[in-house]
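re: that complex we talked abt at group meeting.

here r the seqs, copy pasted straight from the sheet so there may be weird spacing, ignore it
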Amino acid sequence: AQSVTQPDIHITVSEGASLELRCNYSYGATPYLFWYVQSPGQGLQLLLKYFSGDTLVQGIKGFEAEFKRSQSSFNLRKPSVHWSDAAEYFCAVGTILTGGGNKLTFGTGTQLKVEL
Amino acid sequence: EPEVTQTPSHQVTQMGQEVILRCVPISNHLYFYWYRQILGQKVEFLVSFYNNEISEKSEIFDDQFSVERPDGSNFTLKIRSTKLEDSAMYFCASRGQGSEAFFGQGTRLTVV
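got the structure back, here u go
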């Protein structure tokens, strides 16, 4: 069965510093990988996704992620964090369903705090 | 920009009562989902719905839960007899031909 591990529950960075959020997955086939962000009281917003091809994917808000098959990782990065990036970040792996569509298996999330 | 809309944003219900959570998916989407997030825990898959039937459901989605797309635009989740442990944030999501799901803002269900 697929699973996602986000080892860091909380991370605090200073505004302007670089950021890397870790994500490891377990999945038998080529994974569909996603990063979502959840601001307080908000829903889940897609930051970026990986399906195939270039292993470095660019997303919204200046985020990028790199798929490394050998490490089963899909870490999220941002070169310079802004105070508005404070939120909870979820990594997810997508599984194709035989009945159509797919379902997402989420990690436990990483809460990002940004110090001014 | 099209978005998934959920109502209400917060629902308080008494234990044992039926509750219906409503969602309006993005209009040309074909696949519909419900997820839930118990406070402090991860987001969990409940059910997927395609072509007017359930395509997969999790072990959480027992006989107390049902989904319906009654009129071609709304997508509802019904909990027949709510329990305290049903208290959670419920997210509706929809997907078109692309592979990413778009999520609504969620409905916070509180069972008292």
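couple things i noticed - Residues 37 and 43 of chain B are 4 Å apart (CA to CA). Chain B touches chain A at residues 4, 6, 30-31, 33, 35, 41-45, 48, 50-51, 53-56, 91, 93, 95, 99-106 (CB under 8 Å).
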